[in-house]
Amino acid sequence: MILVAFPEMRPLAEDLAPALGADLLTLDWHHFPDGESLISLPGDLDGADVAFLATLRDPDRLALPLRFAAATAREMGARRVGLIAPYLGYMRQDRRFERGQAVSAPLFAQFLGESFDWLVSVDPHLHRIARLQDVFPMPAIRAVSAPLLATWISTNLPDAVLLGPDSESQQWVAEVARLAGRPYEVLRKVRSGDRSVDVSVPESAALREGTPVILDDIASSGVTMARAVERLLAAGTAAPVCLAIHAVFAHGAQDAILSAGAARIITTDTIPHPTNAIGIAGLLAEPILSVVTALDLPVAGTIRLDPNPAERTTE
Ligand SMILES: O=P(O)(O)OC[C@H]1O[C@H](OP(=O)(O)OP(=O)(O)O)[C@H](O)[C@@H]1O
């Protein structure tokens, strides 16, 4: 396999390539003065399984370069072209909330499916969509970060009380709490705009008995985390630690969370950011190798990969 990293993903690629037994190349992305891109692929890709590593935090900026890269790899003789997108943008707009809105999640999935033979991502924002495979036309596998998060909590915050900021977060908070052997609570969130969120905290003595750890999949504007921190402090807890899987962090988000009173912010390296403290390379190798191997099996219709997690199904 040849792993081709988009430039900002080189640090993660260096951790991942040995686990895949892959050669590592870095794609050259030249930006012309008029805003257009020139993508250049190094090396000999003839006959190779090629995996691009690009995190889709800014998907509009990356969409065409990804398409150009995949098409060029095929022109250079790649036998298969996959995408490792540790963070997968556009999964939040999974339905039409108001008349006339584009339902971006399936449209973006279709767009990627036109270029790539397979996809691996880490904990994509699957809220109303049950499985990646329900929106992606090609084999698409979710790597689950809960064991890594639980290990980090057990090692660094053995007195943690986990808190999900909204009902949707229960899915990962409950699993991380179970694996770490720690209690958890779920807060209530009401969003009325991009940066307008309110959070309410249940009356619970357990909240004041350990270090509160707010766990969410994404911190974007940071408003969800910041409101949760404020409400917890008002309820008499210790300063919370904020743990996000994906450090999306729009401008000012990190400051907003810290100004609200968070003790610290911890993220995984699905998106490069100074708060990264949990490396996900070890999580990615197995699903990538599984999907590539499965595509080589002689199939008549259905391929079933290792059934854990549930998303690991291609039909
Ligand atoms: O940092 P922020 O800008 O607050 O965004 C982060 C929040 O947004 C997502 O929820 P989602 O958008 O699915 O739900 P919501 O609109 O109810 O917050 C995500 O699960 C976080 O809870």
Automatic annotation (TrEMBL):
**MF-aspect GO terms:** kinase activity; magnesium ion binding; ribose phosphate diphosphokinase activity
Q: Which GO terms describe its biological process?
A: 5-phosphoribose 1-diphosphate biosynthetic process; purine nucleotide biosynthetic process
Q: What InterPro entries is this protein classified in? A: Pribosyltran_N, PRTase-like, PRTase_dom, Rib-P_diPkinase
Classification via Pfam families? Pribosyltran, Pribosyltran_N
What UniProt keywords apply to this chain's record, in alphabetical order? Kinase, Nucleotide biosynthesis, Transferase
**Does the keyword field hold Protein biosynthesis?**
no
Instruction: Give all residue intervals belonging to the Phosphoribosyltransferase domain.
Output: 152-262
Q: Which residues form the signal peptide?
A: none
Entry GO terms, CC: cytoplasm; ribose phosphate diphosphokinase complex
Q: Which residues form the Ribose-phosphate pyrophosphokinase N-terminal domain?
A: 2-113
Please indicate if the UniProt record lists Transit peptide as a keyword: no
**Entry's family note:** Belongs to the ribose-phosphate pyrophosphokinase family.
NCBIfam families in the record, alphabetically?
PRK07199.1, ribP_PPkin
What name has this protein been given in UniProt? Ribose-phosphate pyrophosphokinase
Q: Which organism is it from?
A: Thalassovita taeanensis
